[in-house]
Known about the structure:
By secondary structure, the protein is of the alpha+beta class. The chain has a single domain (40-183), classed as tt1808, chain A (Alpha-Beta Complex), CATH 3.90.1570. 25% of the residues lie in helices and 30% in strands. The longest helix has 21 residues, at 42-62. The protein is globular. The two termini are 23 Å apart.
Amino acid sequence: MRPVTIDKKKEWTAEDYLLLEEASTLNQIINGELVMSPSPSPLHQIISSNLNDLLKKEAKKLGGIVFYAPVDLYVNKHNVFQPDLIYISKEKKNIISKRGIEGVPDLVVEIISPSNSYVDRYEKKDAYKKFGVPEFWIVDPANETLEIYNGSQWEKPSLYLAASGKVKSVVLNELGFNLTDVFNP
């Protein structure tokens, strides 16, 4: 399924977005367009759950917190994303508000699907870079890959794994697990 874009003539803002009621579908504003996506697949949910467990364990040790979709990340006036996972360090917990995350998180994870691959790999990745996100992960269930972008490494991944290998984070420097732990139910 493809995401549905609503009202192409209207430039959506964060204020317009807040007027929407909670929905059972994922809604985001991407470059001023309201985009609705279907529910994630079971495989997507398995991967998200596995990553949440792995990240949450490390975050708790450090006094940080992990959020999983849906939670709104206010990037700017014309971009409100719902990343699959967000890590916020103890020092940045002040960016958590009643309406969502309003500031730069330490780590963002996007799990791609055929319907959102381009948006996540290019549009959202570029927005995260400009927003100043220190580390960004792209997980591709179809190819069982993980790409990590951080620091000055936004043109090519600082870490690229396919099917297996040790996942290491710059932001969560004590975190370490095998990629196979992500894709297995």
